[in-house]
What we know:
Number of helices: 3
Order of helices and strands: HHEEH
Amino acid sequence: MQRPIPWLWIAALSVLLLAPGLAGRLFVDVLEGITLLLVFGPLVLAGAGFLAWQWFKRRVINCPVCGTPSVGSPVCPACGADLSGVSPAASSAKPETKASDAVVDVQVTDITGDK
Length: 115
């Protein structure tokens, strides 16, 4: 059994859209607001998430003993080292030696045995 087409609702919505009065303008304004929310809402949430991540990243302290990252703890949760003197900027500082300048010594050892 097929549902009848709701001509009454279609007519009421078309009158609201075509009417130059307050009801038509209010309906269009609400529709515009919902559309803007759907379009710009995710962009605003992404921006807020990025700012929160930057804020969080600045407050992470890496333990100088074991390297475990922690936030706002005076003692390392993994090894128990004192973190009160370590600053977040110093714990995330880049190493002074570049990886391209590092030397890796490789020694070849025969593991096949005597043949």
